[in-house]
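Exam revision sheet. Question 4 asks you to relate a sequence to its structure. Input first:
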Amino acid sequence: MTTVTAPKQRRRRRDWPIVGGLILLAFVPSIAGALRVAQLTGGVERTAGNARFVDMPAPVIVHIVGAVTYAILGALQFAPGFRRTHRRWHRISGRVLVLAGLAVALSGLWMTTFYDLPDTDNAATNATRYVVGVFMVVAIVLGFTAIRRRDFHAHRAWMMRAYAVAMAAGTQVVTSVPLLLLPIEAGTPAFAAWRSVAMIGAWVLNLAIAEVIIRRSAPPRRPLVGAV
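Answer key, structure tokens:
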């Protein structure tokens, strides 16, 4: 019978708040996405609010399925104890994550390009979606190439940046709460402007937190030979 040492047990206990927090962050958008997929695959009445999804369901379905997969598997990837204990699983799920992440980013760019802009959004939000989508693709590619050359810190850093961008969907639920308190009617330019601030702020906040973690976990720099 295999016994688990105390240090391993402590690492696992420290992992679960990380995993649980990330999954909790993705909970609301995941539930909303699952309902959207169920509606589109089961047949839903076409309305002004959902016309773009009904007329072109493929990108939103790919986006939602990819995002849920990316959020859950990604949460486990960032649990240090779980990652060390299940190295083979980490490698296999990492490949799945690359595909899921690219599906999320590319389908997001697809929707941004071909879907009509709803009244709740404005040009600034749409432009930021392009920037974020391209950034996520580049981050995943750089993270993948980094692990191929065994640069573990660069791999972790770029994958963390890509994950931070994707998880902004959960953060946007939080940053959009003040919109419910403002006396602004949905569909107006003022509402779209405030929503843009909430959405862009979530992307910036997530990336800022990721950068702090990346810098704190960076390996110490080796002193230059002959430096005084």
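Marking note for examiners. Residues 6-216 form one domain.
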